[in-house]
Amino acid sequence: MLATLAFLFVFSSVLLCKADLSLAEDGMFHIAVFSDLHYGENESTFGIPADKNSAALMRQVLSQEQPDFVILNGDLITGENTFAFNSTGYVDQIVAPLVQGGYSWASTYGNHDSKYNLSREALYAEEKKYANAYTQHGPAGTDGVTNYVLPVFPPDTTASNQKPVALLWFFDSRGGSEYQSLPANVDNIDNYVSNGTVSWYRSAQADMQSKYGTLPSLAFVHIPTLAFVDLQAQTFPTVSGPNYPGLNADVPLAQQGYSNTGSEAIPFMQALLDTPGLHSIYSGHDHGDSWCGRWPNSTLPGYGVGGGSSQNRPFLCFCKHSGYGGYGVWNRGVRQIRMSFDQSGGMIVDTWVRMQAGTVVTAVSLNETYGGDTYSIADGQ
């Protein structure tokens, strides 16, 4: 009951304090996802030029794509390289292109967003100084900060009691180290979506289901679950091939949890699989991967949670390493997601990556034939 009331309070706050997110006049909703920006990395050496390059990428991609909404999907800052007096100041640099362009955004936080001189709470407080920030703090009982949902309404919505056409779910996969804890920057925060957050999500999702029926939805979480590992292993080397185009250079990829089985994140994985209408899940963290696939219908021995029929298994998508901080020398880019809707309310999702060079790569339709359809294997590298 308390979780339900907390969810309703957060949900109502979104609607009362912000303009509703709504489809464009053409009935579509276009999201640009900047992942792993890693501002503030090694600021005494290459960090300042790197941050300037990241800002240039943001401005260029925003100009070319002109999305309806922006998501910052974790590791906004390389917290271990910052100082206490300037750590949250990087938020102002990160969002400057968004503010200047008039874009609204929402964030998830990553494992590098909690370090000795940077806390998630301070990061959130800095974000919330901006009217364009839709990032929300999760209710009591959740762990981390960025656990919340944003509804998307039909075009020209004027009343908050109108039925949404879709939901955007955000989860905090945590990780990193506690603020000002010693020894400095030694990771001591669990790196998976907690059971408390899973309980909130199941309750909140049930409330939405009861109120609106089944709504199509997308989910955003920085660290991928073991389902991504299973998919990569089961489809290798066809991941990054013509059926699953995209970079596949982090092999095996790093997932939520500590054990090889990812058992810590299994409650979260099961909750995702149990969600009616969940279309796709978007993660960053692994800078060398940028492919999409379908949640595997079986798992490696002792691993993860497998899905059922193809209709009930969400798609799994990596974003694209967008920032010039962080490991890896791969060319940078930004995942784009375009949601459109048929007459019955069914959602269609097309996605692609816009590279800083201006090219579009890995443009695919995440539909029932994905995995059988063939696409160009160009990945921008």
UniProtKB/TrEMBL annotation:
Signal peptide: 1-24
Keywords linked to the UniProt accession: Signal
Residue ranges of every copy of the Calcineurin-like phosphoesterase domain listed in the record: 30-288
Keyword 4Fe-4S: no
Pfam families: Metallophos (PF00149)
Signal among keywords: yes
UniProt GO MF annotations: hydrolase activity, acting on ester bonds
One GO CC term on file: cytoplasm
Superkingdom of the source species: Eukaryota
Protein name as catalogued: Calcineurin-like phosphoesterase domain-containing protein
Species name: Lepraria neglecta
Taxonomic classification: Eukaryota, Fungi, Dikarya, Ascomycota, Pezizomycotina
